[in-house]
Specification:
Strand content: 15-25%
Oligomer: single chain
Shape: globular
Order of helices and strands: HEHEHEHEHEHHEHHHEE
CATH superfamily: Metal-dependent hydrolases
Mean pLDDT: 86
Radius of gyration: 18 Å
Number of domains: 1
Distance between the termini: 36 Å
Largest sheet: 6 strands, parallel
Number of strands: 8
């Protein structure tokens, strides 16, 4: 699946599950695979406990739920992505939550699989939810990520596929490119604020 990602035009991917290949072998094939850790707890307390158990090298993401749950989850340190928003209740997010997520730098994920695999009302619901999320992104700057949700090579989608699918809810090509690069940007931001030295009483960073 990592090699297929490279062939589809990606230079990196986030994988949930075990480590099938060593980092050195993946690097030799020109693809960086970051390790994801998805939390499906239904309470903020459970999410906090799961975060403590998560290995330190994982990108932590949480399945969205009710509004109050999402609000609490975004405030938990270490959470990088709120996913599964297309399955969440219709009032799961709003402009207040979007502003808070933008401040906390917690991305909202747009999964492509519902646009391919669902039909009828379920598909229209996903399109409308993504349209609403895109509007909040444009107005308030909440970060967006794009994921395939693929569990096999057959479900993987290339960059061009992502553009065509995202066009269904009005997302432009440049917005797709930016969303595909969001995770790398968030990881760089995290490294940029690490304290590496002291100058008097004030921290100094590079």
């Amino acid at each position: 699946m990592a090699l297929e990602c490279r062939e589809l035009g990606y230079d990196s991917a986030i994988a949930l599950g075990g480590d099938a290949l060593a980092r050195e072998e993946l690097g030799a094939h020109g693809i960086q695979v970051l390790k994801g850790y998805c939390i499906e707890e239904k309470s903020a307390k459970g999410v906090t406990a799961a975060c403590r158990r998560a290995p330190g090298d994982r990108i932590i993401m949480v399945e969205a739920g009710e509004y109050a749950f999402n609000r609490a989850v975004i405030s938990i340190p270490g959470i990088k992505i709120l996913r599964g928003l297309w399955r969440a209740p219709s009032n799961a997010v709003d402009h207040v939550l979007a502003r808070f997520a933008a401040q906390r730098r917690v991305a909202w994920d747009i999964e492509l699989n519902p646009l391919v695999r669902t039909r009828g009302h379920a598909r229209q619901r996903a399109i409308q939810r993504y349209r609403d999320i895109l509007m909040l992104h444009r107005r308030l700057g909440v970060p967006l990520t794009i994921s395939t949700g693929a569990a096999s090579v057959l479900e993987q989608r290339g960059v061009r596929d992502a553009m065509r699918l995202c066009a269904l809810f009005g997302m432009g090509q440049e917005e797709v490119y930016r969303a595909l690069g969001t995770m790398g940007l968030l990881l760089r931001e995290r490294r940029d604020v690490e304290v590496i030295g002291w100058a008097g009483d004030r921290p100094r960073s590079d």
